[in-house]
Write a structure and sequence with these properties.
By secondary structure, the protein is of the alpha/beta class. It is built from eight helices and four strands, in the order H-H-H-H-E-H-E-H-E-H-E-H. It has a domain of 111 residues: Spore Coat Polysaccharide Biosynthesis Protein SpsA, Chain A. Helix content is 54%, strand content 9%. GO terms for molecular function: metal ion binding; polypeptide N-acetylgalactosaminyltransferase activity.
């Protein structure tokens, strides 16, 4: 009887130690994750929007899309719509997975925590639904949420119905504020970008094409570069601006003096001509 009680005590003690070890293991593994995030320049409390794990499907992890032989003719017809393989684009998921193609130095670079926010401006004209929204999803899925102030979609007078109300309804459901701005008439890329920049609220404006894919932490690198440029070159720009302003003021002053001298000389000649006998 005593031996049985002794065994129960040993088993209970062992179970307590196992549970304690499991708790410590889980606790310190979570701490390591927090430390790793801080080393990469990201706040521990701000979790990136998860990108779906690689799964089977056309175009996943950058794999080529194979069009069946029986669909070749249809593929050629669809190609004429946007002058690219629209059939393949529609087979690829809007939030497809991609390999990290950044250089090793970019992957390990540490960025500051307090980077400025950015407004992402995307201009489109009769863009395909799949390519436009894949661009939007890639920005959202591969960027820290706190850095994306908004996404501004500028419609340069598109004519396709699905880019009207259906697009506006779709983007309202996304996790990031997405605004659709309409140009009254076809204005071209630069004017459309200027329109998007005029309504942007972010500290940095990022311009993207309507058919591209954002890689991991692209917005982090963009805003970091913008802040570094501002820090390094803005003081020099202000200094040069003052020098140019001073030079312009001196030039204007010199021109006024020359004008005054010429005016005095003209008045003297006029007076002399008036005084001379006719």
């Amino acid at each position: 009887m005593r031996k049985f009680a002794y065994c129960k005590v040993v088993l209970a003690t062992s179970l307590i130690w196992v549970l304690l070890d499991m708790f410590l293991l889980l606790y310190f593994s979570e701490c390591n994750k927090c430390d790793e995030r801080k080393e990469r320049g990201l706040p521990a409390g701000d979790v990136l929007e998860p990108v779906q794990k690689p799964h089977e499907g056309p175009g996943e992890m950058g794999k080529p899309v194979v069009i069946p032989k029986e669909d070749q003719e249809k593929m050629k017809e669809m190609f004429k719509i946007n002058q690219f393989n629209l059939m393949a684009s529609e087979m690829i998921a809007l939030n497809r997975s991609l390999p990290d193609v950044r250089l090793e130095g970019c992957k390990t670079k540490v960025y500051p925590d307090n980077l400025p926010t950015t407004s992402v401006v995307i201009v489109f004209h009769n863009e395909a639904w799949s390519t436009l929204l894949r661009t939007v999803h890639s920005v959202i899925n591969r960027s820290p949420r706190h850095m994306i102030e908004e996404i501004v979609l500028v419609d340069d007078a598109s004519e396709r119905d699905f880019l009207k109300r259906p697009l506006e309804s779709y983007v309202k459901k996304l996790k990031v504020p997405v605004h659709v701005i309409r140009m009254e008439q076809r204005s071209g890329l630069i004017r459309a970008r200027l329109k998007g920049a005029a309504v942007s609220k972010g500290q940095v404006i990022t311009f993207l094409d309507a058919h591209c894919t954002s890689f991991d932490k692209l917005m982090v690198q963009v805003t970091s570069a913008a802040e570094e440029y501002e820090r390094k070159y803005h003081p020099e720009y202000e200094r040069l601006k003052k020098l140019v302003t001073r030079a312009q003021s001196e030039q204007q002053k010199e021109q006024l003096e020359q004008k005054d001298v010429g005016s005095v000389a003209l008045d003297a000649r006029t007076a002399e001509d008036s005084a001379s006998p006719s």
